[in-house]
Amino acid sequence: MLGYLVVLLAISPFLSLIALVLGSGLFLIQRYLIPLIKENSRELTQAQVSISKQIVETIQGLRLIHSFGRQRQATGTIHHLISHDLLPLQEKQARLSKVTGPVNQSLTITIVGLLLIIGFIVLSDEQALVFPALFTFIAALNRLSATLGGFARLFNSFAKNSGKLERLTEILTTEDKEWSRVGGKIFKGLKEKIEFENVTLQYFSDQAPALHNINFVMPQGSVTALVGSSGAGKSSIADLLTGLYDPTEGKITIDNVDLKAYSLETWRQQMGVVSQDTFIFNQPIIENIRYGKPEATEEEVIQAAKDAQAHDFIAALPNGYDTIVGERGYRLSGGQRQRVALARAILKQPEVLILDEATSALDSQSERLVQQALAMFQQDRTVLVVAHRLSSITGADQILVLEQGEIVERGTHQELLSLGERYAQYWQLQAQGEVAVN
């Protein structure tokens, strides 16, 4: 690079000065454009990060989203971010890229043309040498410009990707799984019963079935409780009822109509789910509670929180119901998260309620208060309870005891105690404080 500079100065210091002035003009134009590219890159990367976070949160909350029938809203949020935030910034980046290339090329051609004209005038005294001198000068300048241009392109590329260098975007993958069944009959309400008929569920072909030959009926307005050790199949029954999985064999009927015949969206709109693995979005608490019923008023949200024994701790937070709880609700305790989830289910006022060990993270005092609220809320609703503490299901209309994916006992609390078998043993152990059924 230094050699080319020496050649230029040797041929004509004046022309070299002119080239420097013209090159400085090109540099100033690039200096004006590069901050625009860098700022757009930062905004573009931030938009990509926001979309990535939203996709990650959506994937993590798939069970909740599908349980509440909010697939359209979830995908709509992502589409809104893409169309209103990401695409305009990508288009702006494309426009800036289209500008910088032609501007640089046209300015380079202009500079070369001016140098030829000025050089011919400056070197005209030496007619015999004017063309060789100009050719040598332009060739040396071209080589020098190519070297400097490499640095410029590198700097321009750095500016274009500076946002990505500041923060890596996340790569997302999802399992190839059908999460939503499109179409089907509109579910208008449960009139008679939900029935499991010879239901078998096998998650993987090379593993034993999670459920085998399950048969039971849930009459409308009744409470059915599931009891069993970890892995017995309790949560699998809840997953089947919400439509997260289809039975491998047998069928689930709603008022004598196969669940597969119904639109899952309308079925889930009438269902409330509170699970042991409570999912909380990185949004204000009021929006987390309102998730199942977006049109709910603030007064309705507060009443649902009171019913779930969550109002007092929410009101004590720095921003009350507007407090953002962090990703997966990490700013709340386990018991607080579950009470928010209970409030979310209560606000929705579903016909079918699934409580998958819903009070497992509550202390005894909170559990007692929540159980009182649930007792009132469950009236006239069809409820499936996955039991953690047997004391919470003594009033259930029927209790099913599961072992290794099969129903081994069924009856009311008193009937099962009278049998003196597995349920009675669980009850005795819990009464002695030795074990919890989970």
Describe this structure in words.
With 438 residues, the protein is an alpha/beta fold. The chain folds into 2 domains: 1-172, ABC transporter transmembrane region fold; 193-432, Rossmann fold (3-Layer(aba) Sandwich). 54% of the residues lie in helices and 13% in strands. The chain is built from 15 helices and 10 strands. It has helices spanning 2-11, 13-60, 62-67, 71-122, 127-160, 162-166, 234-242, 264-269, 285-289, 298-307, 311-315, 334-348, 364-377, 413-419, 422-431; strands at 193-201, 211-219, 223-227, 249-254, 257-258, 271-275, 352-356, 382-386, 398-403, 406-411. Strands 6-7-8-3-9-10 form a 6-stranded mixed β-sheet, with helices on both faces. The chain has a 4-stranded antiparallel β-sheet with strand order 2-1-4-5, covered by helices on one side. Strand 4 (249-254) and strand 5 form a beta hairpin. Helix 2 runs parallel beside helix 5 and helix 10 packs across helix 12. Mean pLDDT is 74; it is low at 157-179.
